[in-house]
Amino acid sequence: MTWLKEVIGTEKAIIAMCHLQPLPGDPSYDYKKGMDYVIEVARKDLKALQDGGVDAVMFSNEFSLPYLTEVKTETVSAMARVIGELMNDIRIPYGVNVLWDAKRSLDLAAATGAQFVREIFTGVYASDFGLWDTKVGETVRHQYHLHAQDVKLLFNILPEAAKYVADRDIKDIAKSTVFNNRPDALCVSGLTAGEQTDSQILKKVKDTVPDCVVLANTGVRIENLEQQLSIADGAVVGTAFKYEGKFENKVEQKRVKEFMNKVKAFRETAIKA
């Protein structure tokens, strides 16, 4: 049994993304509508996700494009306000992701009581956001400084829009990441949000570190969820739950429910097998 059962309540868990609208300081922030609008959209998306039956939710500043690797204080403050406003509405386990700053994600988790964090914790990358040095040793020490050692760390080992500066095989990355850092999970992604995780890469990672939780991190849809979940221990899902399956749209409860009904049927079949 993995920690997914203990923390989220099930194996083959589906962690749904609650993508926050642009926040103060972001280029696309709508200062006329203000934070009330950000909170309103987040509340509606959260309701659609929970009523649709997802297992857990993760709040992220997905529309803070282009992303920073050293996130500003105003972004974390705005995210904390949103989650604080929604606290009485949250009925399922939840995590946070401050894109792309691991320390600030941990700060937000400590402030809001989040149970897990997804981030780029390890590696040095050439990325769309510049040269990116993660300094995992400092991040984990920061976690203990915050007394947040119970927060589960989900390591994204194939960052979207980034590539290792050194050419490394994914099996070597998975093996060394687990040996050196003891992550709670490895997340395997496609190139961008909504792009399917390569099943062959997913299998290589799981075969290399069979005792570590491995999550399909992008592009899991109703058409491929059985294939992806037959390999991965669970999935992080965002775009598939949006109206017409488009990244920029709001969450549609009908799509969530249809997706989760198929997931639950798959789980029952897997248990019987």
UniProtKB/TrEMBL annotation:
- Which SUPFAM superfamilies would you find in this protein's record? Ribulose-phoshate binding barrel
- UniProt signal peptide: none
The organism's place on the tree of life at top rank:
Bacteria
Q: Per its UniProt record, what InterPro entries does this chain match?
A: BtpA (IPR005137), RibuloseP-bd_barrel (IPR011060)
Instruction: Note the coiled coil stretches, chain numbering.
Output: none
Protein family: Belongs to the BtpA family.
Q: What is this protein called?
A: Putative sgc region protein SgcQ
Q: Name its species.
A: Oceanobacillus oncorhynchi
